[in-house]
Amino acid sequence: MEQTTLPEVWLRGALPDIPPVLQPVAHALLQAREEVNALMSDFPDVLLWNRPAGVASVGFHLQHLTGVLDRLFTYARGKSLTTDQLARLSEEGHPKGNTLTVDVLVNRFNRQIDTALNQLRTTDESTLTEPRGVGRAQLPSTVLGLLFHAAEHTQRHVGQLLVTARVLRGY
């Protein structure tokens, strides 16, 4: 029996309750989630922190995907990062004994996607061009700039994760 595959998320139509101008952000995040879940479904924990040719590990990418969404969406709300967020940032790329497994990291990513989608649902379109500062230096951006970059950055790291995972598996 031939397996049918769905078209990419952006080709499945509008998402309910997401403002029209934020549909591309939501589509990109949902596409990333589908790709990460498919790729990591049977990825061995033993390879999680390997760094072939010195590139970032699969574990780093999974941590960073979650963390960057949390941080950029925090800035989009006009908030500063908390002490906990800064601590998690400093931990990206570092295994914590045997507690960080593929399943744990993928579940964290999935929850962060849900949190991001909820924020998109409640984002007032009239705020999208409001200025937002990024980081300690408060570099200039906007609500829309942050949300778009979160989606773009997520897609970029999913691509890097895909390549690293395939190299580690030998295909």
TrEMBL record:
Segments forming domain DinB-like: 29-161
SUPFAM superfamilies: DinB/YfiT-like putative metalloenzymes
InterPro entries, alphabetized: DinB-like, DinB/YfiT-like
The protein, known as: DinB-like domain-containing protein
Organism: Fibrisoma limi BUZ 3
